[in-house]
Structure formats: C-alpha cells, structure tokens
Design goal:
Elements lengths: L4 H4 L2 E4 L15 H5 L2 H7 L3 E4 L3 E2 L11 E5 L6 H13 L3 E6 L9 H6 L13 E2 L19 E4 L4 E4 L14 H16 L4 E4 L34 H11 L7 E5 L5 H8 L8 E3 L8 E2 L2 E5 L4 H15 L6 E2 L9 H4 L6 H17 L3 E5 L20 H12 L4 H11 L36 H6 L4 H14 L1 H5 L1 E5 L6 E8 L2 E8 L5 E4 L8 E7 L11 E4 L4 E7 L1
Parallel strand pairs: 1-2, 1-15, 2-5, 5-9, 9-10, 10-11, 14-15
Antiparallel strand pairs: 3-4, 6-8, 7-8, 12-13, 16-17, 17-18, 18-22, 19-21, 20-22
The structure holds 1-deoxynojirimycin.
Length: 561
C-alpha cells in the first residue's frame, strides 16, 4: 500500500455560511472561520475543505459561481482568504477548495455574454439547443425539480441546467472552457492551496446527441445515462491531471453521483492519473425508495454493512475510499443512523458512528458540528426553509396534490437544511454564532448541544473525536490495514478486522439500543490485546472472545501476535 499524506489525514468540512459570523450580519464569514482555527487545531484535524466562498448570487448557497477568482462579499475579501490560508498553514493544517465547474452561475460574465447572441464568442461555453416541437430539446429533469432546460427568448433557444435555472451547465466539449478551468485551478494552486473537492465532477461529459431519457411521455426524467460518467469523462480528468494537478503535491476528491465501486476504480485507480478519492452515494441511498431521496424508507444494518464492505474490498490495494456519514447535502448522521432521542443515547450513538468513520479504510471527512453531535431540525413551516432543493420539491409536490404533512416529514428526514443550521458554539444568544439574526433558524437544542459545553466535558462526543483522530496518528493499522468483515449475518452488530503485518484492529459496533452479543470467530488468534477506545467503561482484561454489548456500544482493540 502506497503511503500518502492524504490517506493519513482527517478532513473537516466547513460550510462557511453557517460556521461563524464575525460582523453581525447573520451570515458566517472568513474572519469567523479564522477566529475558530484554534478550535480546529484542538480537535486535531489535518485538512479543511471549504465549501464555496466565491462570488455568487447564492441561488444555491455558493454552488452557483459568478466569479471563480473573487470572494463573495458576504464572506469577506481575498485578503481575508489569504489570512485564513496562512493561519491554517501556520498551525500545520491544509486547505482544499471546492471546485464547481459542471456549471457556473447565470450571472457569470461568460454566461452573460453567451446568452446575448448565437455568434457571441462565449456562446459555446454553455449547452444551447433549439426547442423540439415547441417544447424543451429533451425530457431531462433537473436535480432541483422541473425541466433541465430553460428557454431564453433573446436567441429563441434553450440552455441546459442539470441543477437550478441559475446554474447553466458548462460545455466541456469546448477546449476553451477546459483551458479557462485549468488556468483558474492553477491560479488557486499557485496561491498555495492543498487540493480540491470537485463538485458533481462525473457529470461534466454529456452524450452529444442529448437523447431523451426513458420514461412515460409528458414528464421529466433522470437523464443520467447520458451524463453520469459520460463518454469523455476520463479523458477530461486525465487532461486536467496532466495540465494542472500533476504539477503539485495536492489531494483531490471528486463528488461522483451514482457510481459503483467499479466506476470509482476508474477515477481513483492507482495508475489512472485522475483523482485520489471519490465521494460515493450508495450508502446515502439505503433509506430511499424507488422514486428517490424524498421517499423515505427505513434502512437496515444488513444494507449498511453490505454497501460498506463492497466499497472497502473493491478499492483495497488499488484505490482509496473517502469516508463520510453526512455533509451539507445530507441529514445529520446522528439523527439518521444513530439516536438523538435522549442525551445518553445521543452521546453513545454519536461516538459509535464516529468509531466507524475513523476505523474503516479510507480518509474520514467530518462535517462541521458532527463532532458535537448536532442533530436534524424540524421547522414549523415551509417558510422557514431556505434550500432551493427543498423549496422546489415542496412546490412540485403540492402542485401534484401530495399532502403537506407527508411532504414536511420527508423534509424533516432528508432536507439539506438539517445540516445547514448555524454551528452551536455556546448556550448564549444565537448560540454564539452571530450577534445579529442568523440567516437560517438555529436548532433549538443549542443550549444542550454546543462546543463550549462539549469542550468542558471530558465525556463528550467532541473529546471522543479528538481521541479517535490521535489514534489514527499512533497506529498505522488504522490507516493502512486491510479490511475483513466479521459475523456478516449479524443483524445488530457491525464487526470487522483490519490487518497490517502482525497488527490487527478489531472493531465491534452495536448499531442499536438493544443489547447484543458478540463472539470472535475462532480462527482469529492473538497473544495480546489492548483496548484502544470505547464509548463505555470496559473492565481491563475483559474477555474479548465473547462479550455483551450495551446500547450503541463501540469497542476497538489492537491485537498482536
Ligand atoms: C453538489 C453540492 O454538494 C450541492 O450542494 C449542490 O447543490 C450541487 N452539487 C450543485 O452544485
């Protein structure tokens, strides 16, 4: 196994809008982040991934960029950004930036030009087509509801937008577009950043004929077959690597929609010259029905284990996994896979999930507030929600006659605003996030769940994260050990073994509130055992061949000999 700094790192994702506000406008900003660098250092993380901070009209909170080389006014200035980079580097941490180049904002100067006329030099920077029989060029639906096409009367044509109508897709077939992107990446890399997280990067190559998606007429359908891992995707990424990335010692992680481990191997395979890691969505899909994420269905541990094991084994020795249980697009992991119903179960289940995240093979990604056990939120009315995906879905479902209560239940389980409520720094006014009015309502539980309280309590989830992160630095087997699932059929316990040379790591996790039994398979032998971490007190020297697990109990042992 090739050793790399990004395999040994722990990444922390910051969603700047909701992290820390320094000037009282209710919106998080760069100076706010700078004021919390020592907090990040105390936690022990190695790399910060910053969600977009570029100039943007904020139709999709910064994922709609109108200038890739300028900072959003609400977040500060390029000088603030330089100070942030310097502050991180000074403390031995790295910075990766979000690269959002499947689409730009419709307010980007390229698009402003592009829409002016069919012969504008920027016309081919985007994907324009004439209508078909008075309708859109094809039947593709947008990820954010409705058609993926918007009619523009200036030139009597439609442009493609897989996301909102204010996020037109860039035309990667055009070499000038690719050159612009590479130059922009080089500009940031030369400023000293340490890599990129690449937004929906596996959607950039489209089947040029743009054929209809399958499905009944008169409706919009997911056209993924024609743009997920499209025909030129690997050519484009190899070119990007050759032209830009290979010249720097940086890390990359691609957000890749709908990929299997076999697809992933093509993006991250050792000799592919593309990316270091991808974010997979398969695990995030285990509680969705056939119509998609809003059709919430109960997940099972069997599915959870199957998906994780598939990814762990498929990439072993060839690629590298990214490990995440939530981010700014997903509900809070503790509400989804753990238990937030009372303080005790909240504490142990948050730690149990953290144990999983930090002891599988791959690079762990912590999403802000996860280290405090921040939870989902239930706002009273749709008016309180801000996310374009939620608002568009709500409109569409209401128009289709779905009942309000069930729509709200879907939002409570899966809506992205669950993850976007402000960081809970303390139990004071506005949770210490702002002196003004926060841009989105705080989670009302901030008096119980907040950083100040967690830091003062040695038994908190926060301190457990610190210990897990430190363990990673002390035991190579945690980073590089091979993965082998144990007791595969067990419906309540997830157990696995990691092996590196003569060292073994035994991880045993009870995913439920009911107690469970664990039995170590006989063929696993060892002469010494050391308990590295647990979310309960464990008797020293307790038998590990067979034991009972308490609610959400997690134990990690190092075995030798
Ligand atoms: C994925 C991002 O994570 C999400 O927040 C965004 O809405 C879409 N890509 C479009 O950029």
């Amino acid at each position: 196994m090739e050793r790399q700094w990004w395999k040994e790192s722990v990444v922390y994702q910051i969603y700047p809008r909701s992290f820390m506000d320094s000037n009282g406008d209710g919106i998080g900003d760069l100076q706010g982040i700078i004021s919390k660098l020592d907090y990040l250092k105390t936690l022990g993380i190695d790399v910060v991934w910053l969600s977009p901070v570029y100039e943007s009209p904020n139709d999709d909170n910064g994922y709609d960029i109108s200038n890739y080389q300028a900072i959003m006014d609400e977040f500060g200035t390029i000088e603030d950004w330089e100070e942030l980079l310097h502050g991180l580097h000074e403390r031995g941490m790295k910075l990766i930036m979000d690269l959002v180049v499947n689409h730009s904002s419709d307010e980007h100067k390229w698009f402003v030009e592009s829409r002016k006329s069919k012969d504008n030099p920027y016309r081919d920077y985007y994907i324009w087509r004439p209508g078909k029989d008075g309708r859109e060029p094809n039947n593709w639906g947008s990820f954010f509801s409705g058609s993926a096409w918007e009619y523009d009367k200036t030139t009597d044509e439609y442009y493609l937008h897989l996301f909102s109508r204010k996020q037109p897709d860039l035309n990667w077939e055009n070499p000038k577009v690719r050159k612009e992107v590479y130059d922009m990446m080089t500009w940031w890399l030369d400023k000293g950043i340490d890599g990129f997280r690449m937004d929906v990067i596996n959607l950039i190559s489209k089947v040029q004929e743009l054929p209809d998606a399958e499905g009944p007429e008169g409706q919009y359908h997911f056209g993924g077959k024609n743009f997920v891992n499209g025909p030129r995707i690997h050519e484009f990424l190899q070119e990007m690597n050759r032209e830009v990335l290979s010249k720097y010692d940086v890390m990359t992680v691609g957000e890749t929609v709908d990929v299997t481990p076999e697809d992933a191997a093509l993006f991250v395979g050792k000799d592919r010259g593309e990316l270091n890691m991808v974010f997979q969505f398969e695990l995030m899909g285990i509680d969705s029905g056939p119509t998609g994420k809003w059709e919430v269905t109960p997940w099972t541990l069997a599915d959870f284990k199957r998906v994780m094991t598939k990814w762990q084994t498929a990439l072993q020795g060839n690629g590298w996994n990214s490990l995440y249980l939530n981010n700014h697009d997903q509900p809070r992991m503790i509400s989804r896979f753990g238990n937030d119903s009372n303080p005790q179960l909240h504490n142990v289940s948050g730690k149990m999930l953290a144990t999983l995240l930090h002891t599988l093979q791959g690079t762990p990604y912590i999403y802000q507030g996860e280290e405090l056990g921040m939870t989902n939120v239930r706002f009273e009315s749709i008016e309180d929600y801000k996310d374009i995906e939620i608002l568009n879905m709500h409109k569409e479902y209401v128009a289709a006659g779905k009942d309000e209560k069930s729509i709200m239940e879907s939002i409570y389980s899966k809506g992205r605003d669950n993850a976007r409520t402000p960081m809970q720094w303390n139990g004071g006014p506005q949770a210490g996030f702002t002196t003004g009015t926060p841009w989105i309502i705080l989670n009302p539980n901030y008096k119980e769940i907040n950083a100040e309280k967690a830091m003062a309590d040695p038994n908190s989830i926060f301190h457990y994260y610190r210990r897990l992160i430190q363990l990673r630095k002390q035991h190579e087997v945690i980073v590089y050990g091979d993965y082998q699932i144990l007791c595969e059929e067990d419906k309540q316990v997830y157990a696995y073994l990691r092996t590196l040379g003569g060292d073994k790591l035994l991880v045993v996790l009870n995913f439920y509130e009911e107690p469970a039994k664990f039995e170590l398979p006989e063929q696993i032998t060892f002469s010494s055992q050391e308990l590295l971490i647990s979310n309960y007190d464990v008797q020293p020297g307790a038998d590990i061949r067979q034991f009972e697990l308490r609610p959400y109990e997690a134990r990690v042992y190092k075995l030798q000999g």
